[in-house]
Amino acid sequence: MIGAQQVIDVALAEARRRGRADETIVVVTDRVDASLRWANNTMTTNGESTGRTTTVISVVRDGDEATVGSVSSSAVDPAGIGDLVAASQKAAATAPPARDNAPALPGGDAPADWHDPIPRTGAEVFGGVAASLARGFHGADTLFGFARHVLETTFVATSSGLRRRFTQPTGSVEINAKRDGASAWSGVSTADFADVPTDAMLEDLGTRLSWAQRRVDLPAGRYETIMPPSTVADMMIYLSWTMGGRSAQEGRSALSAPGGGTRVGEKLTSLPLTMYSDPAAPGLECSPFVAATRSSERASVFDNGMAIERVDWIRDGVINALAYPRAAAAEFGAPVAVGADNLLMTGGTASLQDMIAGTERGLLLSTLWYIREVDPSVLLLTGLTRDGVYLIEDGRVSAAVNNFRFNESPLDLLRRATEAGVSEVTLPREWGDWATRAEMPSLRIPDFAMSSVSQAQ
Predict the structure, then answer these.
(1) Residue 457 above 80 pLDDT?
(2) Which of 145, 252, 331, 355 is most deeply buried (CB count within 10 A of its CB)?
(3) What are the Cα distances from residue 406, in Å, to 167, 233, 235, 377?
(4) What pTM was computed for the model?
């Protein structure tokens, strides 16, 4: 397995030799993955793996038009690089004109760490978590869960001389605790496992299981509901995925304005909330450049290596920006905006405990599950509650209640929210496999729609 830098050099040289593309972009990602699992108060498995994905993107230009061929491979044998380049150039030669065609970005000096070794991780990173779990295994609750730590080092290189490199650490810990037929979930994201509050997570799970010693069955309906940061993240991340400028301009999304255009500039909520992505957000840092192996409405292969800046998608309660790669921005006369791989939202000053204390009667909605889109025109989502919906009475949690199916739109949740708590780094339950870098406030929703009772336990 030769170094990623050598793969790039060989691929670019092979592309020049074959000469069937005007431009070549190579994206190589080396991944090192460590994991730890436990069940029934026993460590079960741990493991480490390494892998590589190489993508060769060929661009063939003909006047104002361009065609693209993008081919990826997980093979590590250097002998296969030539075949990968040939397949990419062949795909470009037969592809239709690319709608996201944009000029090649200029080259520049390689970053200082371009030739540095790939950083690694291993099972030893879980030492602190494992020690806390070992103590927890002797407690009253039965614990299940897993931890993972991934380091992905991505290289982007182009035939014009552009060079980019970034290592993305991604880590998470998820714990399920069970007692007397009740269950509760807790999860955190982490970059390096130096800050995982495992003991506090176990204490919180024990508290929630004690709430479940009393159970109250409630019917479907609309309830005043407090959404902690994890559930808010699940809904707002889905919103961010739909904020493509092209789909809004063409009337295909909930961000399309009646009669044409987009809803940018519309006041969404009276709360002074700002939802943004920022590659330099402290503690949630992520890649500061585009590394796209295929084009979508929110990113373009032609923009590979382009710098990513902070974007305020919602600013002070007003829809402020939509995602536009360079070509779409030029087509619609909008600012270029590409989202970073994180999502943050400002909040208020109240803690979750303060918000519970200020509730006469309502629900505490701890986690969401199996979220799916029902109506894209209004961004109506449906899903299930899981591992803990709790009844709040007179400012305190008094019981666990049955699970529900819900029907809500994140846009409507923001419109109807009456209070935002302090913003905290959180792990979304539903999207935690793909989106671990989030910071969200708790939200108070006066009439959250629990559409039916769920039999899920």
Answers:
(1) no
(2) 355
(3) 38, 16, 12, 18
(4) 0.96
